[in-house]
Structure formats: structure tokens, C-alpha cells
């Protein structure tokens, strides 16, 4: 099957509820609640689901406008970062989707209220553009700025099932203990740079915030029919010294890997062992103190022979070089 989705849709959804995102305000949600916009699951439709206000939609739907204007919703990104593209998904909205939409973004410190957000100067990252009903509408974004909030405007009204904001998380070093953190965390700026297989789910799930609630929130490969094994490589948030590794197979019972190993690198080319091939148990959080005290910038997880992993964590401290790397990434995204 040919995948014609833009490549940037493989990047994390910064707005997802799973990543801590929130729809903090909408001017109208009479037919369907604004919170549906950032649900991680694909939208669904049940033709028999009617409520007191009509068909119950798995999305955000406003009333029909009888005056000039447009409808808006503001999303606080769970993972502030540089946006590569947005998806305005109008799935199942056919005669009631908005014909046009635009997206703006803003970067702000702290935790402003909706009223305070409305007073800020927002930057347009997607100009007013036509939408197609019952479709994923893709819009690439060229901005290199770090954003904390996104505002979706629909013209003049209607329904949107999902709003995805794909991009690269950029951590604020002022909010981190750089001497003790998860070096492999997506929210700290780590990213997956390669994987042998992503048949069932994205390997970026491995380094996502929080615990996996179900099997589908982890990384699972297809069943191997050869003598090889599956693997994933992570560029860490910065150069650091790891002290503890966590390999979590929660929810993977009949399909957990039998064994796993960890290796690391400074330059991404020369690898050394961090955790030797070790037996794993299904549906278990495994924690391994690491005797290795060398600096690392890249981590490779090998699973044998295949299977699923919920989370991968690598706890330690950033070196002086690592602190500079993380801080420089943040400062570059402010300009």
C-alpha cells in the first residue's frame, strides 16, 4: 500500500492529549465538544448516536452562524516545539464542515488564561486555506520558531474531527534539572532517528511522556520470519552520562520481546555496550542500574527477535557539552 501522507506526519503530534495537550478555549461548541480535537484515537462515527442537539460527532462542531465572523479554538501544546505541519481532519463532516481554516501560533511563558492569550500577538503559520470535507487536510509549516499554543480558526462555522500539530519538541532548560533527567525523553528533545520496523505503531511512542495506557501506545514490530532482530536508535536530548535504564513491556503479554540489549555512541557510528543481552518478562517494567560511566549521545535498543515495548527510559545527567546543546536548541528556536 502506498502511503501518500506528508513525511512530517511521522513527527510527534505536539498537541495530542496523550502528550499533555489541552483545548483551553473555544468560542462555541454547541454540537460537539472542543476536547475531541486532540484525542489521540482516530475519529469514529456511529449513525445511531443522536443526542438532544442532534448527531453526536466525534469532533468539535459549532452552531450555524447567522452573523459575520468565524469560530476559534485554542490548543495548549503538550510538547512545545517547532511545528512542521498541521492536519485539519474533517472526518465524517460532510455537509457541515467549514470551507476554510487558518492556524496561528504563539510562544508564551507560564500558564496564561484564555483571556490573557487573547491579548497576545499571534503569528499566522497557515493562512486562510480551503478545506475538503470528510478528509485529512494537510498544511506544511515553514516556521523555525518554538511555539507553546496554536489557534485554529474555521470560516465561518462547522465541524472538525481532529487537529494535529506535528513537529519537534524543544525543551525549556529553565524547567529541567539538567543533572538528573530522562536523556531519552521526547519532551526533553530526544528523537528517534531510525528503526528496523514500525508495522503496528511508531517507535516515537517509546520515548513519549507518561505510561502507555494500552498496547497501541507503545512500539510493536511485525513478526520476524528470519534470523535477524529488530532495533531502534534514539538521538538523546543531549550528551550525557546514563545511570539507569528502564525497559517497559507493559500490556505486551504474548508479544513482548524475549530479550533486549542497549548500546550507545557519542558520534552515532562507533557503538559500545551499555546493557548486555538480557531476558525480559511480559507486561513488566524492568529497571537496570548501569555501571557504564562513559558519555553518550545516541542510544540503540535491540530486541530479540521482535515484539513490542511500551517505553524506553535512560536516566542520567547531561555533561557540560550536553547542557550547551540543549540550551542552544532552545535559544535558536526563540528567534
UniProtKB/TrEMBL annotation:
<comment type="pathway">
    <text>Nitrogen metabolism; (S)-allantoin degradation; (S)-ureidoglycolate from allantoate (aminidohydrolase route): step 1/1.</text>
</comment>
<comment type="similarity">
    <text>Belongs to the allantoicase family.</text>
</comment>
<protein>
    <recommendedName>
        <fullName>Probable allantoicase</fullName>
        <ecNumber>3.5.3.4</ecNumber>
    </recommendedName>
</protein>
<dbReference type="GO" id="GO:0004037">
    <property type="term" value="F:allantoicase activity"/>
</dbReference>
<dbReference type="InterPro" id="IPR008979">
    <property type="entry name" value="Galactose-bd-like_sf"/>
</dbReference>
<feature type="domain" description="Allantoicase">
    <location>
        <begin position="20"/>
        <end position="169"/>
    </location>
</feature>
<feature type="domain" description="Allantoicase">
    <location>
        <begin position="189"/>
        <end position="317"/>
    </location>
</feature>
<dbReference type="GO" id="GO:0006144">
    <property type="term" value="P:purine nucleobase metabolic process"/>
</dbReference>
<keyword id="KW-0659">Purine metabolism</keyword>
<dbReference type="Pfam" id="PF03561">
    <property type="entry name" value="Allantoicase"/>
</dbReference>
<dbReference type="GO" id="GO:0000256">
    <property type="term" value="P:allantoin catabolic process"/>
</dbReference>
<dbReference type="InterPro" id="IPR015908">
    <property type="entry name" value="Allantoicase_dom"/>
</dbReference>
<keyword id="KW-0378">Hydrolase</keyword>
<dbReference type="InterPro" id="IPR005164">
    <property type="entry name" value="Allantoicase"/>
</dbReference>
